[in-house]
Specification:
Layout (H helix, E strand, L loop, with lengths): L2 H18 L3 E5 L5 H7 L8 E6 L3 H8 L3 H7 L4 H13 L5 E7 L14 E8 L5 E6 L4 H21 L1
Parallel strand pairs: 1-2, 1-3
Antiparallel strand pairs: 3-4, 4-5
Helix pairs in contact: 1-6
C-alpha cells in the first residue's frame, strides 16, 4: 500500500468516526505511533482522533495502559491478551469511544519459534463492547511489517464500525 493509499484509508476511518461522533485512541508498541501519525496527517483529524499511547516497553504497557503483570508474564507482550488489555487501557485513559492496539515483533531480531518475527497482535474495542483480537503473521522487513500492521489496524477500525 502506497503512502497515498494509507492516507485514503486513514481518511475513510476518520470519516466513519466523525459520522458517529466518535473519537479514536491508539495504543501502539511495534508501530511506534505510526497509526497516530497516519491519523493526524489528515487535516481535521482533531474531530475524530483523541490521543495515542506509544507503550514500547512492558513497564509502559503497565504504567500507561494498565496491562497486568500477570498477563505479560503468562502470555507475553506479543499476545492477543496483551493487545486486548492495551485497547481497554486506551479507552480507560482517554475520552475516546473507539480504541485500537498493536503489539508485535517487527524484527529483524526478537522472534522465537513460537512467535517468529512478523507476529503481530491487534485488538479493537468500542466503549461498552467486548474487545476483538487478531494475530497476524506478516512477511517482510521491519518497515514492511510495521506498515502492514498500520493498515491492518486501520482496516480493523473500519470493520468494527461496520459490524
Amino acid at each position: 500500500m502506497s503512502s497515498e493509499q494509507l492516507v485514503s484509508l486513514a481518511t475513510l476511518v476518520g470519516a466513519k468516526l466523525k459520522a458517529r461522533g466518535a473519537l479514536l485512541a491508539t495504543a501502539e508498541s511495534c508501530t511506534g505511533g505510526w497509526v497516530a501519525q497516519a491519523a493526524t496527517a489528515i487535516a481535521g483529524s482533531s474531530d475524530w482522533f483523541e490521543r495515542g499511547f506509544v507503550s514500547y516497553s512492558n513497564a509502559a504497557k503497565q504504567e500507561m495502559l494498565g496491562v497486568s503483570a500477570a498477563t505479560l508474564a503468562t502470555h507475553g507482550a506479543v499476545s492477543e491478551q496483551t493487545a486486548r488489555e492495551m485497547a481497554i487501557g486506551a479507552l480507560a485513559h482517554s475520552r475516546a469511544q473507539v480504541a485500537l492496539a498493536i503489539t508485535g515483533i517487527a524484527g529483524p531480531t526478537g522472534g522465537s519459534p513460537e512467535k517468529p518475527v512478523g507476529t503481530v497482535c491487534f485488538a479493537w474495542l468500542e466503549k461498552d463492547g467486548a474487545p476483538v483480537a487478531l494475530t497476524r503473521h506478516i512477511d517482510g522487513d521491519r518497515e514492511s511489517v510495521r506498515r502492514q500492521s498500520v493498515i491492518v489496524a486501520l482496516q480493523g477500525v473500519l470493520d468494527l464500525l461496520d459490524a
